[in-house]
Amino acid sequence: MESLHEILSPSFLLRNSVYISLLVGLVCPLAGVYLVVRRLIFMGVALPQISSCGIALVFALQAWGVIPHSHDDEHTVAFVGAALFTVPAILALSFFARRGGGSVEGRLGTLYVLAGAWSILLLVKNPLGEHGLLDLVKGEIIAVSNADLMRTSATFTIVIALLLLFQKEFLLVSFDREMAITLKKNVVLWDALLFLLIGVTISMAVLTAGPASPNPGALLGSRRMRETIGLLREQFDYIVIDTPPVLPVSDALMLAAMSDGVILVVRGATTPRQMVIWSRDRLEQARANLLGVVLNDIDVRRGDYARYYRDYYAYTALPGQTRSASV
Predict the structure, then answer these.
(1) Which of the two ends of the chain, N or C, has the fewest CB atoms closer than 10 A to its terminal CB?
(2) Using the 8-state DSSP alphabet, how is residue 249 labeled?
């Protein structure tokens, strides 16, 4: 409870990031459930990428002088661009899905690839692309200001209120459209309102968290990650980062290079010695400061415990260290 109180306190450095993460995690499922009901599950993957493409386009238009540029209105312009791409995309995809014919997954996959490619091209051609615009396209959940938090909270409050207020109508037109027509419901109006709410939700979420990353490991090596660790250094005396194993993925190596020291944890009687050696070599190649080894899952009552620990450490000792060095 003490840690939770510290995180939620006004003095916590990443308090706004925590709050806005909770908001996104609450609202996105409420809106996304209607995509599931309409059997448009994969649309939730394609729409954030399409939204990012809209953000990249409006900033490219600003750089080219088509629309005026203002640093004070960057988030507003980004939201407008995201919404203008997201809402029509939902309408078009839903329309083709209702008509039938063709592969829904194929259309979504094509849009996802094209939107991602155009986002990259627009950023590359944008002379201002290196000055913070990439952060707006990929999300700024680490650096959330009070104004961003209030803006997102107000928008999501309206979205939640409308979703709850018209829940019956949205469920009816999504689950049984024919019945809604029989009951003389204005299905076009309810569809338009629902898609507008979903589009607004996705647009706001993309501005905060960005679209799904095709390479999550690359996020650990980003400038944002280094800035986050730098901010945490100012907030805490000690930071312990628990990473995945060294060999299967590169996550541990990226974080090791940013850390002051690394402790290699080895499971005794399970992890082969050769894998320990390979792990040590990879950490050394990443220029990590290997402080030592922790050998766990060992029965200390066994007589060969000391020899077992000594042998494992000998295999992981860096050049210049002796076999009897302490950990």
Answers:
(1) N
(2) -
